[in-house]
User: What shape does this take?
Amino acid sequence: MLASFFCAGDSFGIILCDIRRRVAMKILGSGLILFLFAIGAAAQTAPTWPDVTVLENKWRMEVRNPAVEKDPFAANNQQMQQEQAVKRAAIENDNRVKQGEMALPPVVQQPRNETGHSKLSVDYVYELKVKNNGPKEIRMLIWECLFFQPGTTEEVGRRRFVSQVSIKPGATKHIMLSSPKSPTGSRTVDASKAGKKPNEMYSEQVVIRNIGYADGTNWPAPRGR
Assistant: This one.
């Protein structure tokens, strides 16, 4: 193509030919840049995993207070049982005395036994809703939830989960898992985020790492196959 711009003739013709050649080179360069940009954009917008669409993801804290959850009537029931045991023992002793036998020792009421932990416990619940857009039933998902400081790309934590599921083609599935660890991996939440809603603490992104199908295949396929 460049051979067609071979310049000959007087000086004006050579200059004009050189200008044409420069313009042609710029056009070729611009076209190449646009072509590479289009390829890069297509690569960025292409899905990173097949078959699965993440419809929703969220997390929350659940605080449990054993003192509140225990049976409020447990103490009364135990007290009634002990009083009935004392009455039965008294009747039996009266009968023994009438028959000339020695009375049994009196029933001693035992203090109520407090079982379980009285401290508050915190669990972190992670939820995911996905749809199977592929032709095969999904039996397993390995997925990660990435957490970032709001409005930034600074990653502050990630949690990885393995979920055994059964998702038919075209069906959706709600997955819920509980963990003692917070989004950052610790057992407590940053004090600076106290009082905030979960969606205000971090921005989130779900990444599907592995898909196991009912026919025994996986995405991505194991290396060497």
Remarks:
- The longest strand covers residues 52-64.
- The CA atoms of residues 73 and 123 lie 27 Å apart.
- The longest helix spans residues 11-45.
